C-alpha cells in the first residue's frame, strides 16, 4: 500500500495530472459511483463527500487509494487525504461535470423527441411539488443554486419540514440554516431545478407576496 501511495503522491512533485484523473475516477467508484454522490467538498485535510447510500461506499478501497482515515458523519463520508484533498475535490467535480455535459449534449442532439419531452415534463412536475413543502409558492422569497448539488431557499415564514414527503418528491435532504433559510440537496442538477423553481415563482401573482413582511 505504501508503494502504491507513493506512486500516486510523489513527495517532491505531487501527483501528476494522469494519476490525479485515475485516482479521482477510482474514488468516484469507491463512493458508489456518480449516482450515489450528492455533493463534493473539501477542507484543508479532508475530502468530504455526501452520498445517497452509505452501504454503497467501500471504505477499505478509499483507504487503499491513499486515505489515512475515513470518518462517517450522517450521510457525509470524510476521507483524510491531507493537503491533496482540495485538488482531489476539483478533479472529482471535473469528472462529474464532464459526464453531465456529455449527457446534456446528447439531449440537445435529440431535442424534440417524445422521450425527451416526457423527461422534461416529469422533472417539471416534480419541481412543482416542492413549493407545497416550503409553505407554498407565496412563501418562497428567493431560490438559487448555491453549489453543484444544492438550492438555497429563503422563505418569508419558517416552515415545518416533512423529510419523508421531501424525499418522495426528489429532494434527498434539507439543511436548515436558520428560521427562514434552507438548503435543498437535489443532486447534480441544482442549477436546472433552481431555474425551474424560479419560473414557478415568476408565474405566481406578485400580489400574494404582499401578505408577507419583507
What does this structure look like?
The chain is α+β, with helices and mostly antiparallel strands and 214 residues long. 43% of the residues lie in helices and 21% in strands.
Question: Strand-residue fraction?
Answer: 15-25%
Strand order of the largest sheet: 1-2-4-3
Please identify the top-level CATH class of the largest domain: Alpha Beta
Q: Give the number of domains.
A: 2
Secondary-structure content class: alpha+beta
Describe what is shown at a glance:
The chain has 214 residues and is α+β, with helices and mostly antiparallel strands. The protein contains 7 helices and 8 strands, in the order H-H-E-E-H-E-E-H-H-E-E-H-E-E-H. Strand 1 (37-42) and strand 2 (46-51) form a beta hairpin.
Question: Helix and strand layout, with pairings?
Answer:
Blueprint: H1 2-8, H2 17-30, E1 37-42, E2 46-51, H3 59-64, E3 70-73, E4 76-80, H4 85-109, H5 114-133, E5 140-145, E6 150-155, H6 163-168, E7 173-178, E8 181-185, H7 190-203
What distinguishing features does this structure have?
214 residues, alpha+beta, Gyrase A, domain 2, four-stranded antiparallel sheet, elongated
Amino acid at each position: 500500500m505504501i508503494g502504491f501511495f507513493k506512486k500516486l503522491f510523489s513527495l517532491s512533485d505531487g501527483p501528476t495530472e494522469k494519476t490525479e484523473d485515475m485516482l479521482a475516477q477510482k474514488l468516484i467508484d469507491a463512493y458508489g459511483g456518480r449516482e450515489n454522490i450528492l455533493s463534493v467538498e473539501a477542507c484543508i485535510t479532508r475530502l468530504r463527500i455526501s452520498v445517497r447510500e452509505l452501504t454503497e461506499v467501500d471504505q477499505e478501497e478509499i483507504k487503499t487509494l491513499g486515505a489515512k482515515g475515513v470518518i462517517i458523519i450522517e450521510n457525509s463520508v470524510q476521507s483524510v487525504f491531507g493537503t491533496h484533498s482540495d485538488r482531489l475535490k476539483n478533479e472529482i467535480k471535473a469528472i462529474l461535470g464532464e459526464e453531465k455535459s456529455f449527457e446534456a449534449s446528447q439531449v440537445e442532439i435529440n431535442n424534440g423527441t417524445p422521450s425527451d419531452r416526457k423527461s422534461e415534463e416529469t422533472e417539471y412536475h416534480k419541481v412543482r411539488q416542492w413549493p407545497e413543502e416550503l409553505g407554498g409558492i407565496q412563501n418562497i422569497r428567493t431560490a438559487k443554486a448555491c453549489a453543484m448539488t444544492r438550492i438555497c431557499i429563503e422563505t418569508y415564514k419558517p416552515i415545518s419540514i416533512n423529510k419523508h414527503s421531501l424525499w418522495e418528491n426528489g429532494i434527498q435532504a434539507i439543511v436548515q440554516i436558520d428560521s427562514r433559510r434552507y438548503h435543498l440537496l437535489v443532486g447534480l442538477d441544482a442549477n436546472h431545478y433552481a431555474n425551474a423553481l424560479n419560473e414557478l415563482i415568476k408565474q405566481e401573482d406578485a400580489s400574494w407576496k404582499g401578505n408577507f413582511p419583507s
